[in-house]
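So, can you check this record?

>
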Amino acid sequence: MNSYLKMLSCFLIVTCFISCKDTRIHTAKTWKINDGWKFIQKDVPNAKEINFDDSTWTTVELPHDWSISKPFSKQNPSFSRGAWLPTGISYYRKHLDISDIGTDQKVFVHFEGAYRNAEVWFNAHYLGKRPSGYSAFEYEITKFIDRTSKNILTVKLDNSEQPGSRWYSGNGIYRDVFLKVKNSIYIPTWATYVTTPKVSKQSAILNVKSEVVNVDDKTRKLELRVSVLDTRGKEIIQDQKYIAVQGGKKYALDLDLEIKKPLLWHINDPDLYNIRLELFEKEKSIDKDSVRVGIRKMEYTVDKGFVLNDNPIKIKGVCLHHDAGPLGAAARKTSYERQIRILKEMGANAVRTAHNPFDSEFLDTCDEMGMLVMNEAFDEWEVVKKPQTFREKGNKVRIPVKYYAHLFKEWANKDLKDFILRDRNHPSIFMWSIGNEIDQMRDESGVAIAKRLMDIVHQYDNRPATCGVNGYGWGDWPHEPAVAQIDIPGYNYAKGENYDKEHRDFPNRKMIVTEHTSAQMIANRGEYYPFKSVESSLQLDLLISHTDTQKFLKNRKAYEQGMKAWIDVKNRPFVMGEFIWTGWDYLGETIPYSWPARSSSFGVVDLAGFPKDGYYYYQSQWTSSPMIHLFPHWNWQGHEGEKMHLNVFSNTQEVELFVNEVSQGRKTNDLNSTKMLTWEVVYQPGNVKVVGYNSGKMITQETLNTVGDISSLELEVTDNTEITYIEVKALDKDANFIPTANHKINFKIENAELLGVANGNNRSLEPFVASFRKLYNGKAIIILKKSNSNKPGKVIVSTDGIPEVDITF
């Protein structure tokens, strides 16, 4: 070959190497990239550079909340609202191996949530910023990939401006991160939308909408297969379309599929179907998408309230914050499964996500377990909130938070749109919420904002939206033209007469109580004062006499206000139901406590996941299986011969109390009353027993004994999927639970990582990540994750004076 031909050959080879596309068909895939992140808790501006040395940084696994394991301190600017835990700037770096990705493929990085002001770089190229710490977001990184060297993903988070929230937000990349690899023709994230426009027991229509994007420069001919898989994973329907998508264009899918004799999604039978879309080119799969749905019919009426599959259902709901107690914001799916299980055992059928988007895995869990969801987007619009915060002397101050109001004008439309698009396929969602206690709902400015947000909801989904508004009956009623923009107005802390007035004034208005006091306000689990008057025995005994604290305590009676709130809703069919504040204690918002309290005590379940007494009030009202609950305990050394009060929640018709085998009388149990059953008795060691009767026949009973000193510890694995929860209880020599035990317990662990420990005491400053914990009123919880999933894990628990005990999982 002469020199000219050699030169021409080399030129053609080089030109082809530079300009020829990779025409092979590659596999599209999505996977989590949660392991092996490098982390540091400080500002490192040059960390975004490719050759930055992060070898001295800590290696962490996502989800990761870096502040939850830190010491509590009065000097932390998050204050009691943020659980006295540190905040600030942090960086994360992830080294990615993407050498096997085709040159013609597109790559995206997807974040489910990172708190907050997330700025992202890939190979030192700035991808963007997402201020909200609760929004999911993704970026394309295709054009910045280096196929000859390492690739570095860098994330900066800044939560240094404090106080930054009304509750504990968490800090870090506290939700999953995914890498998505697509071909040049693909189904975009959140493009698929499935609705059930017609539903009956005989048949159901599934409407499937989606789109196919072609970023190639030529027309592509494809086969699009749409399949429906039943709850067992068996394909029951397949449809296919042959499509041609021009270069740079989109194809919009709109397809109806009919299912004969469908299994309907219901709170008691949450049957799910899987809708699978798959693109084929030349018989090779080039992309797929999968959406899990429930077939159900939802109706919203004035006279019957909420109707699911032709059955009226009273909403028995709880408000929740997003933290998982000792895990902070870094919850796992097991955490959600445990939470929903405990709430369903109480009789709850709905959750309000207060007051921000939750993790997708939480909604997945609600889909699977049959829990309805009011899905809430915002806690602020344009006006900054100034929540009440209590000082150590009991005086109340109001401190403005730098949360979202400063972002609302620029980001609210996008955050709300992405929120709806991400979540709209979840069958558990029965209602959206565009805000909580929004001050602008009291004046003219709320009209235009409410309409704008409602229009966004209606553009992307067909379910109604509410807005939780307070002030009804407080002499400062909301601005009616603003309220009129809402599909179903939400009522916070209203009273029965307020609902009646609204119903008279607006007889066609649908109503729901978005928030009201729980039947266990402010007190910790197992905290009792039974030798006082009936009212005082049920109230918190705070050693603070400041008028601010005392006024708060007087207005938030421990049980009565919450019980009346439910009766007001229960007996009014035109009110769909209520959500109590709260189902679960949460980190931050410690009112009326200050230091050393670092978590709330509004819930009917404590921070460790143990039910309080108020939990059983709702169980007596919200469940039909016979139940009875007696409190307080019968361990009052030093009070022998004194009069005290014993209380009962039950759903039986009559209840009889026995003290040391002597009847104290039988009482009628009126389930439409706001009074619990109470007996005044004389304390003497021994036992107390309550018996519940229906039609004169004994149905259920409970006995409490005076217990002895600690003799053993009982360990029980209660939840054990992705992570493991182990409950610890103190027992005496007769295996009776000891409700006053506060012994320090120590842990030794094999083949497991300790994720957190807790005991439910909101005033404990013990660290959440430690090899020890004090029992609080007899109980504690240990949360672990196996190091090697193929081998059993083991925890050994000990306390002074008794043999150690162990359990494998």
